[in-house]
Write a structure and sequence with these properties.
By secondary structure, the protein is α+β, with helices and mostly antiparallel strands. The protein is 36% helix and 23% strand.
Length: 106
């Protein structure tokens, strides 16, 4: 459908889009923030369920294919897609650092 190697290899893909009409001119970055919050929640939830996930920012040709194939309205901006599935590999997670090792007190 989208002819994208990551999405074709994944059993599930979610496209995140925003209807930008309700935003006011001074909320220029609000749609991107909303998309970021939604994507973060999906990625964290997938991780907690043991799913592999990969966010992919779209290049223009993929967005146009998605719009046409899925009937996405012109006023909706497609920001990114996230593919989900079970990973072929399960690498060990890196050790967590103590908060004092990664922060500076001012």
């Amino acid at each position: 459908l989208l002819q994208h190697r990551v999405f074709e290899a994944s059993p599930v893909t979610i496209l995140i889009s925003v209807d930008e009409r309700p935003y006011f001119f001074h909320e220029k970055h609000a749609p991107a923030l909303d998309v970021g919050f939604a994507a973060q929640n999906m990625l964290l939830a997938a991780t907690s369920l043991g799913l592999g996930r990969r966010p992919v920012y779209f290049a223009y040709p993929y967005i146009q294919r998605a719009r046409k194939a899925l009937g996405i309205e012109k006023y909706r901006k497609v920001y990114l897609g996230i593919s989900f599935g079970y990973s072929d590999e399960n690498p060990d997670r890196p050790a967590r650092h103590h908060v004092d090792e990664v922060t500076n007190k001012i």
